[in-house]
Design a protein that fits this description.
about 375 residues; alpha+beta; five-stranded antiparallel beta sheet; four-stranded antiparallel beta sheet; 11 helices; about 25% strand; rod-shaped
């Protein structure tokens, strides 16, 4: 700075007897009042606006602190500085002192996030990696000297950006510990974000307080999982939506039949196509039987826990019948070894003689009595 500029600044500053800060920024926390050689005139006016606190610093020592309002800087209004200087009968004007304005408003939506994935052991998926991000709100505590001493130092223009990274390191450390101690399954994490955020707010407050900062709110907005874990969760969700797997399988077979009907030419694997059609028809018939039972308004009659069989007669389904009833039909000639039968748990309609449980009833029936 040239000699002319120094003279100009000194002359201009001596004419000023009002000390104030008109903050036109969004994130300035500390602002030091610029004055030539830090000289303050006796009787100067100190104006502290709402959401501001002014701190006098004398030779590196904290002196008087002023809350919002208009203050006249005299020995009567500077008790701490007067004691430090040993002024018994007033002081000569001007005197040298630094004036720091501290912004006490709440700084909102300060973002935090994990730079690297956090390793943790999930009770369901085992070791997994997780990422998280969110926001937090803070303000300088009512005792601004703690923040000036521990964070800002002699910086005459300290912004929220300067403290955000340091606060972010506290956040990640505590977040990792809290996440591991909570033992909340990854599948339930999204439903617990509010509780998790509240717990972290309580845990982080003491660390912020040591820096002279009040943590007003802490939010965990999202916890993301590795792609493979998200796919596993999607599959589990799909299974829950499907519900009854038997019904789902029946639906799949019905869709296969529909596709086959729309493509009568089929493929080149005729035996495979034939088997698929047979399975499809069997499943379709089973579905028809169940639908018929539902339309009748009642399930098949209970028969003391005995297994029930359906019998195909002239291409029509009959039954269900118990084994004693089937044995009677054998005697009456209404059921032969080649008759097709089906029961719950069987894959498709099968000849009665090939069913181990029914093969005995054919051997136990005496042959027809020859005519006299």
């Amino acid at each position: 700075m040239g000699l002319f500029n120094k003279i100009k600044e000194k002359a201009f500053s001596e004419l000023i007897d009002i000390i104030e800060w008109l903050d036109d920024t969004q994130d300035t926390i500390i602002w030091r009042f610029p004055r030539y050689q830090n000289e303050i005139k006796n009787g100067a006016q100190l104006i502290v606006r709402e959401s501001q606190v002014a701190v006098l610093v004398d030779q590196g020592r904290f002196a008087d602190i002023y809350q919002p309002g208009r203050h006249l800087l005299t020995t009567a209004n500077m008790p701490v500085l007067t004691t430090l200087r040993g002024w018994k009968y007033g002081f000569d004007s001007p005197f040298k002192v630094e004036v720091y304005f501290v912004n006490t408003k709440q700084f909102l939506n300060r973002k935090w996030g994990t730079k690297n994935p956090i390793m943790m052991r999930d009770p369901e998926f085992g070791p997994i990696r997780m990422r998280a991000f969110g926001t937090f709100n803070f303000k300088i505590s009512s005792n601004p000297t703690k923040f000036l001493k521990n964070v800002a130092g002699t910086d005459g223009n300290f912004t929220a950006e300067g403290v955000q990274e340091q606060l972010g390191n506290y956040v990640i450390t505590k977040f990792t510990d809290q996440l591991a101690e909570s033992k909340i399954p990854a599948f339930d994490m999204a439903a617990s974000l509010n509780e998790f955020s509240a717990a972290l707010t309580t845990v982080l407050k003491p660390d912020f307080d040591e820096l002279g900062i009040d943590l007003m709110k802490f939010l965990v907005e999202n916890i993301s999982l590795p792609e493979e874990v998200e796919k596993a969760l999607d599959k589990r969700t799909s299974m829950g939506v499907l519900g009854d797997m038997t019904k789902y399988t029946q639906f799949q077979f019905a869709e296969a039949l529909k596709t086959g009907a729309e493509n009568p030419a089929g493929g080149n694997n005729l035996p495979g196509d034939a088997m698929g059609m047979g399975i499809g028809f069997a499943m379709a018939q089973q579905m028809a039987q169940q639908m018929a039972g539902q339309q009748a308004g009642a399930p098949p009659p209970i028969s003391g826990g005995q297994k029930m069989y359906f019998v195909a007669v002239n291409g029509q389904q009959t039954g269900p019948f118990t084994i004693p009833e089937l044995q009677q039909k054998v005697v009456q000639g209404q059921l032969t070894a080649q008759s097709l039968v089906w029961a719950q748990g069987m894959f498709t309609w099968t000849a009665a003689s090939t069913v181990a449980e029914l093969s005995q009833i054919f051997g136990a029936v005496p042959p027809p009595i020859p005519p006299a």
